[in-house]
Amino acid sequence: MLDWLGPEEWAAVALSLRVAFWAVAASLPLGIFTAYALARWSFPGKQLLNGIVHLPLILPPVVTGYMLLLTFGVKGPVGGLLNEIGIVFAFRWTGAALAAGVMAFPLMVRAIRLSIEAVDVKLEQAGATLGASPLWVFLTVTLPMTLPGIVAGAILAFAKAMGEFGATITFVSNIPGQTRTIPSAIYAFLQVPGGESSALKLVLVSVTVAMAALLISEILARRVADRVGGK
Amino acid sequence: MLDWLGPEEWAAVALSLRVAFWAVAASLPLGIFTAYALARWSFPGKQLLNGIVHLPLILPPVVTGYMLLLTFGVKGPVGGLLNEIGIVFAFRWTGAALAAGVMAFPLMVRAIRLSIEAVDVKLEQAGATLGASPLWVFLTVTLPMTLPGIVAGAILAFAKAMGEFGATITFVSNIPGQTRTIPSAIYAFLQVPGGESSALKLVLVSVTVAMAALLISEILARRVADRVGGK
Amino acid sequence: MLSVDLHHAFSGFTLDAQFEAPPGLTVLFGASGSGKTTVINAVAGLLMPDRGRIAVGDWMLLDTGRGVRLKPHRRRLGYIFQEARLFPHLSVKQNLKYGAWFAPKDAPREDMGRVVELLGIGPLLERRPGALSGGEKQRVAIGRALLSAPRLILADEPLSALDETRKAEILPYFERLRDEVDLPILYVSHSASEVARLATTVVVMEDGKVVRQGAAAEILGDPDVLPMGAREAGAVLTVTVKTHHADGLTELDAGGEPLFLPQIAQGPGHRVRVRIAAHDVILSRSRPEGLSALNILSGVVHQVHRGEGAVIVAIDTGAGRVLARITLRSAQALELATGVAVHAIVKTVSVASSDIGAVGG
Amino acid sequence: MLSVDLHHAFSGFTLDAQFEAPPGLTVLFGASGSGKTTVINAVAGLLMPDRGRIAVGDWMLLDTGRGVRLKPHRRRLGYIFQEARLFPHLSVKQNLKYGAWFAPKDAPREDMGRVVELLGIGPLLERRPGALSGGEKQRVAIGRALLSAPRLILADEPLSALDETRKAEILPYFERLRDEVDLPILYVSHSASEVARLATTVVVMEDGKVVRQGAAAEILGDPDVLPMGAREAGAVLTVTVKTHHADGLTELDAGGEPLFLPQIAQGPGHRVRVRIAAHDVILSRSRPEGLSALNILSGVVHQVHRGEGAVIVAIDTGAGRVLARITLRSAQALELATGVAVHAIVKTVSVASSDIGAVGG
Amino acid sequence: DEITVFAAASMTNALAEIEENFEAETGHSLAISLAGSSALARQIQQGAPADIFISANPGWMDTLEQEGLLEPGTRFDLLNNSIVLIAAGDADPVEITPDLDLAALLGEGRLAMALVDAVPAGIYGKASLETLGLWDDVEAQVAQADNVRAALALVATGEAPYGIVYATDAAAEEGVTVVGTFLADSHPPIVYPAADLANRDVPAEAEFLDYLKGDEARAAFERQGFVVVAN
Ligand SMILES: Nc1ncnc2c1ncn2[C@@H]1O[C@H](COP(=O)(O)OP(=O)(O)OP(=O)(O)O)[C@@H](O)[C@H]1O
Ligand SMILES: Nc1ncnc2c1ncn2[C@@H]1O[C@H](COP(=O)(O)OP(=O)(O)OP(=O)(O)O)[C@@H](O)[C@H]1O
Ligand code: MOO
Ligand SMILES: [Mg+2]
Ligand SMILES: [Mg+2]
């Protein structure tokens, strides 16, 4: 069974999982924060922030990847600074995670934002009258009630991160074991005549993994919804 | 001003707008239906449907494009049938819209589904006791209360459709005036030396259009939310 | 005629209720958590019970044995929920009109203007529910249910959020529905005076079970039952309007005995119901003179029922059986026992206006 | 001492309310839509009024003039909302504990077990709010507010969803809060007996304005005001417990006159409040004999106030001023006028248990 | 007549010039679809309405020829190209021989190439390095981009110190220096074949193919740095 895929493909699968996991895990707090800010606050530049969040969706992935390269590459303004404190994205799996995270960010934020907007402000008020500061109200009322949306957003982001290709390969290229994710590998197979069957295997793996993640998320979300709805 | 972009670029902008508009408009009813089914019904194969909806997100766009080509191309099983009744997707702007619609579908469905799940079942029950059949309850209670989510889903899908590249170019190629959308034009510019500035112009147009759409959607959603919340 | 037979188990609570409600208004009475809302939800079709049968006349709403489970929207109900459940995206007016939309074109309808005026919600028509006070929401919810041309009204504590004045305005409307429109009504209430005034039948629930059911007069007048605590015991008498006097009093004929009430709406010859709360009756062995109380009913003690800290005395008078709640000390001082002749003194005005109702079905 | 001065305009409704609530429990009284919830929301900080000042003693919650706008969570409130507003994702127990979490560690606390028992919610602790009945939700909401160690309690019709028995159980608890714990309480109610029993002060609202405020006895006993309709008028007397008799009666001393009530909880020497509703008093020129009524207060007519269809007579007795609502016919028959000596007959048991309260602040 | 040309995206600039001249001269109109050679070839397999195919990848042209999709006898090699070693910024030329210590040049840095098993430029580069016996030394350090331009960008931004790209691309990029050219015999010949496609018969097809072979086209290609195959 294991030799159904070659070691390089297995490496690509493992890497994709790692990249997608960290892309989601690392961006989730910022995603929740951004979603909350967009849902509940009004501040100057809110529409600008909203626009920036959506940019990766609007731009062709290559452009996003190129912008990441210019910004977070070792020669880039941010990448250079981070480099000095030992954080390197260029040509590392971390960079792949960054690219995937950026591309998935708008999906995550939208889902979470919709859920936050659906939380009844009256319950948050009840929390406040009981002495909970806005932060505590958020943590004890808004956040738990938003869980289904957060799960949905995270899984959407995870799926996107598993499938992200254009920005990733442009930013961190395709280095076996480092940045060669499943989509990069599939892309490479599809470039040459007769590569379809190898590509298909990876497609199947990718689909299986993502379906499993989806199923788990559905079960999680159902459980949360049950808790909120009834017993 | 008009000659800031050449006629071919203007054609690409116009085409992208048309493609994104129809991608969203045509898939919206199905998106709402699917979201409702996933949110409120339980039926065998529900998880499978959920998985299929998410597929375009998980797979590299090239794969989706290739699958569309195999299915909806003139030689494909579905494309061949449709061809006989005069509906052609292959290498037409309609195909670009199909590709964009398919790629944007999971985003649309997720957003709408979250909104539907947030509608209090108790209000739907109230509608039923007042004599509204499930369809009427849906039309008069669920749907209007879901409007912010539908707007959000549509705009997310629109943004995605404006930015979609990989599946589109793989499915319907990059034919000027027919299937050359903004992202495809940007791609072609980026493949040759000196194309960056032309690409940048198109990026700006694309960003402007999408931001405008976003802003309108925010205003719309706010208005709807105000109606539901207060006066 | 509504017949209900339900079995349903929640974790921690089991409903096991059977009752038959004759035409008219049936009050579900019982402590918080006794299962009233659960019954109403089952009748509405919002709760599918584990087993059960619900029929209005020979129209079968539910029969799990035979697989009949009418969908809620086919049951043609006017359900006034315990929490208003207004549609937040519709204006008050649109909320009110909602049900009429789906009613058969030829169904008898209430007049919108009339209902709006009765409920005092005219100035609110263009607002959305989010901008209403608690009582206003409840009034709109009542209107919405009434205007849906229903064949059965379910009302779950419809008046509990309202002040006395408003209650007094809306109560006669439910009476009219009960009597003139002839709608079966299932009504949850905690208020004995509401029950006395409205109920044709009372169904008393306790912990998911029906512990007692019967005509309102019977249940409220039975010193052995007192489902609502001794304070709420009282007799419900059916009397006939005799004359309206110039000084604002209405004279009634209670089985030959005169009874005076502050002016009531019904004209001479009409039969009305009055409630005489047990704690509003004073007893005397000799006929008292020179009292401000105008109503003195003579009778014979039927039964002396010792409760906690007080005694309930049932007296058979010409007007019917009247209950009096007095102290043990007074009962002993007056040497009350079955067969003893006594006079029941009822303060005119203690027969409160909200305890008078047109006689129903 | 709570002082409130608020101006706020909604489209279609303007609030313009000033009142000073001395320590104790202040009832906001008024028709549906008169602005009660709006006032409470402003005190809670959930509504930021256009202009206003709210202070508890010298602790300033709001002063728009000086830019003071304390956030709700800094106000340390126990707010019992008109609709329960429980947290659906937390169990009943977690809901109850929520406020305690955020209270200062040294704040005086109610005992959870006691509150749970009082409210009868012990069996519900592990459930989620979605599986509770309407009244159960309201009881949990009361518990949640009480257990948050508040410095001010806001209660918006906290008992309206409850049955009489349950109400009677919870009322004494609010009394204790008022008297022993010495919490300022702002309380919305539609029920005159709740008001009479609980209120130190009554604030009457009408259409966004405070039309009358004062001590409970004063407002409820003033025949000129009768904010709640004539039926609700009544005297509130402060009396002292004398002895508990073996036959279940408690003898009270009302300014020298004896008054008999069914056994009450307070021991001899305690001062309690009783309410004598005007419609529960019968008048007589001669001292009546042989009645089941044990309480006869002698006095002199202070004023005869003609209302619609009835007359309210204020009588100065040794126990204080008592009101009687009688018919015009009786008033004429008895030739009542200021200065005339009369006897007020009060049925013992018509001084209901829910009208007795320990004397507050 | 309208002629649809499917051409590798790396010819964008040259074809833009040729299109203008050809249309002016002949009155025919051209629709040029620019995409990756593999995508175009697959579309042709699926019945794309293309008349002419110009591929950057002889392998895909072979595939089409075997499937009988080319008009027999019309295929010819249009262009030649060469691959070069480039360095970021200014750098001294090196001699590309088996003695070159490429690994030492790179140090910790990356060697940017197009996908070495999938994209022609990468395939050629890998072949050369293998011929020279350098491949094993540097394999682990190769960063593979999804196309030549992306590889070029990695070097131009300084993220990778060296890269292997087409001479045509290197010439036009200011940020890089060509430090050496790979000998033509170190890799399979780099040719861009063109052919008439069998599916449709537009008389002007032959006219356009002839034009491509003509002097005007030659000049246009040479301006973009291509070497036109002598014929
Ligand atoms: N957001 C709003 N916009 C406009 N009007 C409002 C808004 N909120 C409340 N009102 C109006 O203000 C008035 C007072 O409302 P409030 O909720 O204070 O009444 P209330 O005295 O608590 O009544 P109830 O006893 O029915 O609960 C009502 O007429 C209501 O319609
Ligand atoms: N989904 C549920 N799961 C478990 N128990 C439930 C559920 N819904 C209701 N119950 C329980 O069933 C009992 C009856 O509830 P119901 O709402 O019928 O009471 P009620 O008589 O209407 O009370 P109230 O007067 O307080 O509204 C309650 O004890 C309640 O806790
Ligand atoms: O146009 Mo290519 O096939 O990506 O070099
Ligand atoms: Mg209930
Ligand atoms: Mg209110």
TrEMBL record, chains A, B:
<comment type="function">
    <text>Part of the binding-protein-dependent transport system for molybdenum; probably responsible for the translocation of the substrate across the membrane.</text>
</comment>
<keyword id="KW-0472">Membrane</keyword>
<feature type="transmembrane region" description="Helical">
    <location>
        <begin position="85"/>
        <end position="105"/>
    </location>
</feature>
<dbReference type="InterPro" id="IPR011867">
    <property type="entry name" value="ModB_ABC"/>
</dbReference>
<feature type="domain" description="ABC transmembrane type-1">
    <location>
        <begin position="13"/>
        <end position="215"/>
    </location>
</feature>
<dbReference type="GO" id="GO:0005886">
    <property type="term" value="C:plasma membrane"/>
</dbReference>
<keyword id="KW-0812">Transmembrane</keyword>
<dbReference type="Pfam" id="PF00528">
    <property type="entry name" value="BPD_transp_1"/>
</dbReference>
<protein>
    <recommendedName>
        <fullName>Molybdenum transport system permease</fullName>
    </recommendedName>
</protein>
<feature type="transmembrane region" description="Helical">
    <location>
        <begin position="51"/>
        <end position="73"/>
    </location>
</feature>
<keyword id="KW-1003">Cell membrane</keyword>
<comment type="similarity">
    <text>Belongs to the binding-protein-dependent transport system permease family. CysTW subfamily.</text>
</comment>
<keyword id="KW-1133">Transmembrane helix</keyword>
<feature type="transmembrane region" description="Helical">
    <location>
        <begin position="20"/>
        <end position="39"/>
    </location>
</feature>
<dbReference type="InterPro" id="IPR035906">
    <property type="entry name" value="MetI-like_sf"/>
</dbReference>
<keyword id="KW-0997">Cell inner membrane</keyword>
<dbReference type="GO" id="GO:0015098">
    <property type="term" value="F:molybdate ion transmembrane transporter activity"/>
</dbReference>
<keyword id="KW-0500">Molybdenum</keyword>
<feature type="transmembrane region" description="Helical">
    <location>
        <begin position="135"/>
        <end position="159"/>
    </location>
</feature>
<dbReference type="InterPro" id="IPR000515">
    <property type="entry name" value="MetI-like"/>
</dbReference>
<feature type="transmembrane region" description="Helical">
    <location>
        <begin position="199"/>
        <end position="221"/>
    </location>
</feature>
<keyword id="KW-0813">Transport</keyword>
Automatic annotation (TrEMBL), chains C, D:
<feature type="domain" description="Mop">
    <location>
        <begin position="290"/>
        <end position="355"/>
    </location>
</feature>
<dbReference type="InterPro" id="IPR004606">
    <property type="entry name" value="Mop_domain"/>
</dbReference>
<dbReference type="GO" id="GO:0016020">
    <property type="term" value="C:membrane"/>
</dbReference>
<keyword id="KW-0067">ATP-binding</keyword>
<dbReference type="InterPro" id="IPR027417">
    <property type="entry name" value="P-loop_NTPase"/>
</dbReference>
<keyword id="KW-0500">Molybdenum</keyword>
<dbReference type="InterPro" id="IPR050334">
    <property type="entry name" value="Molybdenum_import_ModC"/>
</dbReference>
<dbReference type="GO" id="GO:0140359">
    <property type="term" value="F:ABC-type transporter activity"/>
</dbReference>
<dbReference type="Pfam" id="PF03459">
    <property type="entry name" value="TOBE"/>
</dbReference>
<feature type="domain" description="ABC transporter">
    <location>
        <begin position="1"/>
        <end position="232"/>
    </location>
</feature>
<dbReference type="Pfam" id="PF00005">
    <property type="entry name" value="ABC_tran"/>
</dbReference>
<dbReference type="InterPro" id="IPR008995">
    <property type="entry name" value="Mo/tungstate-bd_C_term_dom"/>
</dbReference>
<dbReference type="InterPro" id="IPR005116">
    <property type="entry name" value="Transp-assoc_OB_typ1"/>
</dbReference>
<dbReference type="InterPro" id="IPR003439">
    <property type="entry name" value="ABC_transporter-like_ATP-bd"/>
</dbReference>
<dbReference type="InterPro" id="IPR003593">
    <property type="entry name" value="AAA+_ATPase"/>
</dbReference>
<keyword id="KW-0813">Transport</keyword>
<protein>
    <submittedName>
        <fullName>Molybdate transport system ATP-binding protein</fullName>
    </submittedName>
</protein>
<keyword id="KW-0547">Nucleotide-binding</keyword>
<keyword id="KW-0472">Membrane</keyword>
<dbReference type="InterPro" id="IPR017871">
    <property type="entry name" value="ABC_transporter-like_CS"/>
</dbReference>
<dbReference type="GO" id="GO:0005524">
    <property type="term" value="F:ATP binding"/>
</dbReference>
<dbReference type="InterPro" id="IPR011868">
    <property type="entry name" value="ModC_ABC_ATP-bd"/>
</dbReference>
